[in-house]
Write a structure and sequence with these properties.
mainly alpha, 55% helix
């Protein structure tokens, strides 16, 4: 079982560096031992061996600072640049070509799914009062807006209910009004390019 490194101020910088270091070690091992740089070989190895280190318990230690986000993202940058034929493309173009999201969007996607489940009735007992719906008849945006909480400490901005509300309220109506969780996931995939 892996450990989570947190300092006395609940700063996750050490954990981000630790996760990136472990993923980089795996990336180096793949680079040294794989003769083929084909997409069909590298992409599954990245998904199975490196990305789990970057996302292990991420809901607990979600990066708070841009420098931490960059440390984690750098691993995915290096992995996608290894793929033959994509070396000359920009990072964004490589992601588009491979059908991947940046890690920040993957974390957001992973936060929006439980928010949707909660709003549809799951976790009601455990998450009492987690989100508050805003009654509004405005026609802009989606019809299921959530109330943004007020807080004094900046660290609260990173708490799950606070970080999700802003992005939830920006989702299009067709994503939020989806008839099922699977439909919600599919529609959020399309909407994510405009959220981060």
């Amino acid at each position: 079982m892996d450990e989570i490194l947190v300092d006395e101020k609940l700063n996750m910088t050490q954990q981000c560096a630790f996760a990136a270091q472990k993923a980089n070690r795996m990336l180096g091992c793949v680079k040294r031992n794989m003769a083929s740089r084909a997409r069909e070989r590298i992409l599954p190895l990245y998904s199975a061996l490196m990305r789990p280190h970057l996302e292990y318990c991420i809901q607990l230690w979600s990066p708070q600072y841009k420098q931490d986000l960059d440390v984690l993202e750098q691993v995915q940058r290096r992995a996608t640049k290894m793929i033959r034929g994509l070396e000359h493309l920009s990072y964004e173009d490589r992601l588009r070509e491979l059908g991947l999201f940046c890690l920040e969007k993957r974390r957001l996607w992973g936060d929006l799914i439980p928010a949707c489940q909660y709003l549809e009735g799951a976790y009601r007992k455990d998450g009492e009062g987690l989100f508050t719906r805003v009654c509004s008849d405005r026609t802009r945006g989606n019809g299921c807006k959530l109330k943004e909480g007020r807080f004094r400490l900046d660290i609260r901005k990173k708490f799950f209910p606070m970080s999700v509300v802003k992005h939830w309220n920006r989702l299009p109506r067709e994503a939020v009004d989806g008839p099922s969780l699977e439909m919600f996931k599919a529609r959020v995939d399309g909407a994510l390019s405009n959220l981060v």
